[in-house]
Design brief:
3-stranded antiparallel sheet; 14 strands; about 550 residues
Length: about 550
């Protein structure tokens, strides 16, 4: 990326200034290069001279002047200015900017990809909602954040695996089986009460009716414990079918669906317990088995095996992450969790230390809640069923692209209001429409040019010098930086902001620069602008694809 080249350029200039005595000898730090916050301050800037003031024992402005005097002048730079208290501002050359259109066209769909990850093996585990009911809008935010982050990491050069962790063991699955048994029996005319704290949604009624249709009275005629086990497995199958249909509708593919049960069936949990006992991280207290998380930085000790003998929730977490890191050898694991899991984070890092693993190899993304609104009014219940609003209902109401964009558009630590009416608007007020319309407009321009027999091949991009042409190119060149930012900070929402900014810049370019002209005198400029438009289509389509959205040819 050009900002890395500028950083290297400044580093060499400091070395040269030191050799010639213009700067004293000191260790040169990593050179920060950033986009200026205000327009008119160049394309890039570095505050490194402010950082060097104490070690060089010189005023930042004098340091900056010394660096500029020893700076090489590559073809991509037009000028370098010393500004303010000691900033260095860099302005890219017009000719170099225009040539980047050719670079984008040659790269095609690979444009924007970077080699940040060096093919490190990364797992992104997301959604992983309990298979006790359909996905809701909160799970939708988890899905979009996890999927787009995985896309970004692939573009950033990581070897990425997507995984859904199926919580098919534990007390909740037992309660789910009892709830389904009650609804199944009721569907067959038997007066069976729902268990205390059972799953009450209308989906359970429908599931009980389906089981009654498919299996008849079979489970009423067997031992209750056997019936609960069989119905629990059937209900799990039904629920996973529903979840898999939802994620398929959203365009999400999981490389692996991991069963929690297997951790106990294949000996993983026993192996981990033996390891923790060996390292003295297990104590028995009050009839239960505890993990001494406080000895490793956790805020409290955690139950692994309850007094009744059943493994606790954290037992599976330890075994599961042992499997991820030790058995399957992921270099880095990213878990996407809802805000209700915030308190579990310290114990996870304590668990990493107990297993002898670097806690930095585990990243946990905590996302906040989503509030559904319709025209400003909060929507709490489904019109269809009178209870929970499922993700499927929202997808069918406003469309996959709108769901994905709106759930991506805010940083995960921000609570979100999702306006269903705005998401369906076909106007510039709707960012989804505005962005996709830019792509459709580009496609329309290229169709018109083709109908008129105008070709961009051979167009001279050096003719691109209009301020709006250059502004569009500058926006296009930001894509690799956005990918790096999103991958480094695990913040895929930056893609949504970038897509909106790029679309806006294209619409302004289209307003100010006529692309297809019938005037023979404008023929060469038309060809050059058609190249620019083709490049813009590549970058916008790549951005939409990273967000998991469609790039429509017409609207």
């Amino acid at each position: 990326m050009i900002k890395d080249e500028i950083a290297e350029l400044v580093h060499h200039a400091i070395e040269e200034a030191q050799k010639r005595g213009a700067l004293p000898t000191f260790d040169i730090p990593k050179i920060p290069v950033e986009r200026p916050k205000q327009e008119g301050h160049g394309d890039f800037a570095t505050p490194v001279c402010l950082q060097l003031a104490s070690s060089a024992r010189m005023a930042p402005v004098r340091i900056a002047q010394a660096i500029v005097e020893h700076l090489a002048h590559p073809d991509y730079l037009d000028s370098v200015e010393v500004a303010g208290p000691g900033y260095m501002n860099f302005v890219l050359s017009t000719r170099w900017l225009a040539q980047q259109v050719e670079v984008i066209l040659r790269a095609g769909e690979r444009y924007g990809d970077i080699d940040l990850g060096k093919r490190r093996k990364v797992q992104v585990e997301f959604i992983s909602a309990n298979p006790t009911g359909p996905l809701h809008i909160g799970s939708g935010r988890n899905a979009v954040v996890g999927d787009v982050l995985a896309n970004v990491l692939v573009a950033a050069g990581y070897d990425v695996q997507r995984e859904y962790y199926v919580n098919d063991a534990g007390t909740q699955m037992g309660l789910f089986a009892e709830s389904l048994y009650a609804r199944y029996a009721q569907a067959l005319g038997q007066d069976e009460p729902m268990p205390e704290g059972g799953y009450q949604g209308s989906y359970m009624v429908a599931m009980g009716q389906r089981a009654a249709r498919e299996y008849g009275r079979r489970f009423l005629d067997m031992e209750r414990s056997e019936a609960l086990k069989a119905l629990g497995d059937i209900g799990l199958k039904y629920t996973l079918e529903s979840i898999q249909a939802d994620v398929a509708l959203m365009g999400i593919h999981f490389d692996h669906w991991f069963s929690e049960r297997t951790l106990y069936e294949d000996g993983t949990f026993d192996r981990v317990m033996a390891l923790l006992r060996e390292r003295n991280y297990i104590v028995e207290r009050d009839g239960a088995v505890w993990f001494t998380a406080t000895a490793l930085g956790g805020d409290k000790d955690e139950v692994i095996i309850r007094s009744g003998g059943a493994p606790g929730y954290f037992a599976s977490d330890i075994a599961y992450h042992y499997d991820k890191f030790v058995r399957r050898g992921f270099d880095w694991v990213i878990d996407v969790w809802g805000a209700d899991h915030q308190g579990h984070v310290p114990r996870m890092y304590a668990m990493m230390r107990a297993l002898g693993l670097d806690p930095k190899r585990l990243s946990i993304i905590i996302y906040q809640l989503v509030t559904l609104k319709r025209g400003g009014e909060v929507v709490r219940l489904s019109k269809r069923t009178g209870d929970m609003i499922t993700l499927r209902e929202v997808l069918e109401d406003v469309g996959v692209d709108a769901v994905r964009f709106f759930l991506l558009s805010r940083a995960v630590e921000s609570q979100m209001d999702f306006d269903l009416e705005l998401a369906k608007e076909h106007s510039n007020e709707n960012p989804v429409y505005y962005i996709q319309y830019a792509h459709a407009r580009i496609s329309s321009i290229l169709r018109v040019a083709q109908e008129r027999g105008l070709e961009s091949d051979g167009g001279d991009v050096s003719l691109l010098s209009h301020p709006m042409e250059l502004a569009l190119i500058r926006r296009m060149l930001m894509l690799p930086e956005v990918i790096e930012l999103a991958a480094t900070n695990l913040a895929p929402h930056h893609l949504a902001a970038y897509a909106l900014d790029l679309a806006s810049q294209f619409h302004v370019f289209y307003r100010d620069c006529r692309v297809v002209s019938s005037d023979p005198a404008d023929y060469e400029l038309t060809r050059a602008r058609l190249k620019l438009v083709r490049a813009a289509k590549i970058v916008l389509a790549k951005t939409l694809r990273l967000m998991g959205m469609s790039a429509p040819e017409q609207m």
